[in-house]
Design brief:
Elements (H helix, E strand, L loop, with lengths): L74 H26 L13 H10 L5 E3 L5 H6 L4 H9 L32 H14 L6 E6 L6 H12 L4 E7 L29 E5 L3 H16 L5 E6 L29 H11 L5 H25 L22 H10 L2
Parallel strand pairs: 1-2, 2-3, 3-5, 4-5
Helix pairs in contact: 1-2, 1-8, 1-9, 2-7, 4-9, 5-6
Protein name: 2-oxoisovalerate dehydrogenase subunit alpha
GO molecular function: branched-chain 2-oxo acid dehydrogenase activity
Keywords: Oxidoreductase, Thiamine pyrophosphate
């Protein structure tokens, strides 16, 4: 038997900074705004494989939209996007405080990632189906879903639209193109691909879109989904939200130091785009490109949205224990709300006063929704009727359910 000349060692990836360290993003290679070319929508995946390693950006440091990916949106659309992001952030802040006040058991913010769900929620139709993770609340907010209904679900009160059957923030809103969130990480991706395959099989005109975090790409569900998406040319947009951190492990644990997450598409014969996730215009343009490809029967696109999770992973998490405290402030791609605000001001279509007014209006809107929801009840104060646990499972009630209902008197 041949022996190694030296002992083997196991490599465990380490982030560039831990608590107490100065944030260090010097290892990032970021293309300048406007530097990446826009391939034809009909391009073969092999011919555009370099896009899996570049970074699509539209907004430059002065807030100007530059380059071939500029979607040239009108000012009203930009203002709607900015206001939806502001409202999403205000909603997050209030619900996070509600958890600290004991009104709910759990919450997850999307601070720093608002441009992703808002832009994509504005582009696609409600009839297209979104298969989100727990950080796409902006999708519902951008589409005008009632804030009170979202809060009722978080509080699991008597008006909870899901009737207490889901953890807080795991919304379900079919009429808004929002498939029920699954707490089992990664399962939403094969579900989205399957839904898209069914749409194509029926000769329908609806497409699917899904999101997964960088950490969950290590799940087998993700890779199984890419196989099916490629083989059957499913009309689906597959987003990888690389926000640098899973619950406490950095993106390197899922392979982010070896290559980009977008490049995982190459091995499956899928086109890939790597996009500045804090640039509302870049997210819009890339999604528009992928949507056109899907609707023209050219199949799926993988988009890595390069962003940063500014808030804790959830209310159960303390990021100060595993990363530098000011790392979010030093993120080189800035803040999506501030960047879109700067762009609108540069266009002469917005001002600091309008920003202040929009933020105040968002806080007031969220406060009013909170009053309505809390009047129904918060954690443990009111609950969906017990009888709902026996409903909406079988088309015809099973005899055992009849007996169980009788036992509890409903």
């Amino acid at each position: 038997m041949t022996k190694n000349s030296q002992p083997l060692s196991l490599r465990v990836p380490e982030p560039s900074g831990r608590p107490g360290d100065a944030p260090d993003f010097s290892h990032l290679i970021l293309d300048a705004a406007g530097a990446v070319d826009r391939p034809d929508v009909g391009s073969k995946p092999f011919d555009m494989r370099d896009h899996a390693f570049r970074l699509v950006r539209v907004l430059d440091d002065e807030g100007q939209a530059v380059g071939p990916w500029n979607p040239r949106l009108d000012a009203e659309t930009l203002r709607r996007g900015l206001k939806a992001m502001i409202l999403t952030r205000a909603f997050d802040d209030r619900m996070h405080r509600a958890h600290r006040q004991g009104k709910t058991s759990f919450y997850m913010k999307c601070t720093g990632e608002e441009a992703i769900a808002v832009a994509q929620g504005m582009i696609l139709s409600r009839e297209d189906m979104g298969f989100p993770t727990y950080r796409q609340q902006g999708l519902l907010i951008a589409r005008g879903y009632p804030l009170t209904a979202m809060m009722n679900q978080i509080y699991s009160n008597a008006e909870d639209p899901i009737k207490g059957r889901q953890l807080p923030i795991m919304y379900s809103a079919r009429d808004y193109g929002f498939f029920t969130i699954s707490g089992n990480l990664g399962t939403q991706v094969p579900q989205a691909v399957g839904w898209a395959m069914a749409s194509a099989y029926k000769g329908d005109d609806k497409i699917a879109i899904t999101w997964i975090g960088d950490g969950a790409t290590a799940e087998g569900d993700f890779h199984n989904a890419l196989t099916f998406a490629s083989v059957y040319r499913a009309p689906v947009i597959l987003n990888i939200v690389n926000n640098q951190w899973a619950i406490s492990s950095f993106q390197g644990i899922a392979g982010g130091l070896e290559t980009t997450f977008a490049s995982k598409a190459i091995g499956y014969g899928l086109p890939a785009l790597r996009v500045d996730g804090n640039d509302f215009l870049a997210v819009w343009a890339a999604t528009q490109w992928a949507e056109e490809r899907a609707r023209s029967n050219q199949g799926a696109t993988v988009i890595e949205l390069f962003t940063y999770r500014g808030a804790p992973h959830s209310t159960s998490d303390d990021p100060s224990r595993y990363r530098p405290g000011d790392e979010h402030e030093k993120w080189p791609l800035g803040d999506p709300v501030a960047r879109l605000k700067q762009h609108l001001i540069a266009l002469g279509e917005w001002s600091d006063d309008q920003q202040t007014e929009a933020e105040a209006e968002a806080v007031a809107q969220v406060r009013e929704a909170g009053k309505q929801s809390e009047s129904i009840g918060t954690l443990g104060q009111s609950r969906p009727s017990v009888k709902t646990m026996f409903e909406e499972v079988y088309a015809t009630e099973d005899w055992r359910l009849t007996e169980q209902r009788r036992e509890v008197g409903v």
